[in-house]
Amino acid sequence: MRGANASTLAGFILLGFSDQPHLEMLLLLVVSIIYILTLMGNTAIILLSCFNPKLHTPMYFFLSNLSFLDLCFTTCIVPQMLWNLKGPDKTISYTGCVIQLYVALGLGSMECVLLTVMAYDRFNAICRPLHYGVIMHPKLLQQLAALAWISGFVESTVQTILVFQLPLCSHHMVDDFMCEEPALIKIACVNTTFLENELSIASVLHVVIPLGLILASYGCIVRSVLRIKSTGGRRKAFGTCGSHLIVVVLFFGTLASIYLQPKSKYTQSYSKFLTLFYTVVTPSLNPLIYTLRNKEAKRALRKLLGRDRDGREAWCATVHGLAKSQTQLSNQTELD
Question: Could you read off the pLDDT of 284-302 as tens digits, one per residue?
């Protein structure tokens, strides 16, 4: 317990990529650029979803929740990471580590549930199009979003309490760039079999089961789409689901590699880069994936940026029509 008390006073040292110092400055630059893109892209999605009436749909309601989640998730992790990359000081306070673990676990668990809810939305849109508006009513949307937020932070509360009740070794060096549960378990000075088993159960509940439900939804979607005789209809249906499926593969693929893969030298060597991918890179790709594959979103984005060609042409036509009417009225007045 003396080790735990020492950790409480001194905080932790996040070793991060200190074993590869030649990469630190490169990572500092790359992660800074990605973080800026993440802030801009996800903020744009939220603004589009709020202020464009054409995007007041269930899909964009959940997407705006996902974008807000990604903003919080990256902001919880990246600033501390950049601070540690820029110099020799790689410490984080005990309180900061607790908050980072709690928030990251909560938002990560919530994203798993939210992506499952979005798959349910796509299932209803394609498999039950005639009843879609009745099923996905505003009250249900709010309830599903609340379920995602609440379930994520309930899981995070349990995990965080269990982790920080462990007596930690006096060196308090965390072999990662953030306070993540597997890395913190490794520096405990007691047998952690119970906590490792509990982590495995939590991984099944928040990774395996949601992924299974998503795949089951897409199995039904594919079966329904294949019944569509029109090639254009099939293409449109697959295009509707394609963006979400890409995000699911990227997020759950890296998450499963970290939490479900058996311990090995491969996991030890590459887990930090896998963690970097799902915590930093994936949130920056989500806005690109959803906007580049959706004509309505691209049109709304151009309008938000003042580059909507159709809107300008309509405005010019309106001005021209008013000018023409004014000229005709003036000529008529002169004749009179």
Answer: 888 877 766 666 666 766 7
C-alpha span between 152 and 314 (Å, rounded): 46
Q: On the CB side of 262, how many CA atoms lie within 13 Å of its CA?
A: 0
* Of 256, 328, 246, nearest in space to 288 by CA: 246
| CA distance linking residue 286 with residue 280, whole number of Å | 11
Which residues of the chain, if any, have pLDDT below 50?
1-9, 265, 308, 311-312, 314-316, 318-319, 322-323, 325-326, 329-330, 332-336
What's the pTM value of the predicted model, to 2 decimals? 0.81
List of long-range contacts for 1-10, beta carbons under 8 Å, 24+ apart: 1/167, 2/170, 3/167, 3/168, 3/169, 3/170, 3/172, 3/189, 4/166, 4/167, 4/168, 6/170, 6/172, 7/94, 7/168, 7/170, 7/172, 8/94, 9/94, 10/91, 10/94, 10/172
Coil, helix or strand at residue 78 = helix
User: Residues 183-205, buried b or exposed e (16+ Cβ, 10 A)?
Assistant: bbbebbeeebeebeebbeebbee
